[in-house]
């Protein structure tokens, strides 16, 4: 940590550990320079009983006095027991001995050099921290963009799938319409062929039959209409005035429904509907009969007529 480097540097510069801690506390751990300024401003003050905890006290009985404590593991000397204890707590070293070698205080030049080195180390650590934070921010931004792209891609895939479903539905609807038109066309063609065949048969019958009033000709006004397989009847109404109009009814609907539809469409009340070929009147008395039974399936044209 930065405070540990500050403590080590200040103690190596000759400041007592207790006073260094006091300086850091007094300056709210604002850094090396404020702590040094405080130490220089309070150089003459003591910090209590621990301020003079030297490794040994000179006595008259000893010619050589212990001037420091030496760590035999790393061969570093310390001015006080407090500094040695701090060193032991940080390094785990336990082999200490008294030494007559005096720990000389750093000169002003050495202090300045130590301060510059500490500032350089602190600046390097700050730069590393900022670089790491920038890298973490770039990684967060990358993850955010990746998540955004994945979300956008997922939305686009949903839209594309919906478009494909819509296209397929339209194609299916178009195919069904084409098949329906084809079936209707085939039915119309078949109906034409059947009517032509009936007319030809009738013509041949008339030619082969003797011209006599006693012979009863088979009815020709009601052609055979195949209504099997048809569920709807497309009815065209031709009024005496105005354009014709068309409506599709259920094949099993009753004739009354056509009369009701024409009344609502034209406003007419007293009228009669009739087919054009074969010519046949569909009176209101037949209103309960179905369109299928009346031969109006799959399609028919009805003419409106009015009584004179």
From TrEMBL:
- Tagged with keyword Cytoplasm: yes
State what protein this is by name. Answer: UBX domain-containing protein
Region annotation Disordered: where it falls in the sequence = 172-208
The family database entries (InterPro entries) matched by this protein are listed as: UBA, UBA-like_sf, Ubiquitin-like_domsf, UBX_dom, Znf-C2H2_OTU1-like_C, Znf_C2H2_type
Q: Which residues form the UBA domain?
A: 1-42
Q: Which residues are in the UBX domain?
A: 228-304
Here the segments flagged for biased composition (Basic and acidic residues) are 172-205
Organism encoding this protein = Dispira parvispora
List, in alphabetical order, the Gene Ontology terms for molecular function in this entry. Answer: K48-linked polyubiquitin modification-dependent protein binding
Task: Show the Pfam families listed in the entry.
Answer: UBA_7, UBX, zf-C2H2_OTU1_C
**Gene Ontology terms: cellular component:** cytoplasm; nucleus
Compartment(s): Cytoplasm
Q: Establish whether keyword Isomerase is in the entry.
A: no
Q: Which GO terms describe its biological process?
A: negative regulation of proteasomal ubiquitin-dependent protein catabolic process; negative regulation of protein K48-linked deubiquitination; negative regulation of protein ubiquitination
Keyword entries, A-Z: Coiled coil, Cytoplasm
- Please name the Gene3D superfamilies in this protein's record: DNA helicase RuvA subunit, C-terminal domain (1.10.8.10), Phosphatidylinositol 3-kinase Catalytic Subunit, Chain A, domain 1 (3.10.20.90)
UniProt cross-references to SUPFAM superfamilies, sorted A to Z: UBA-like, Ubiquitin-like
The record's principal subcellular location, in a coarse class, is cytoplasm
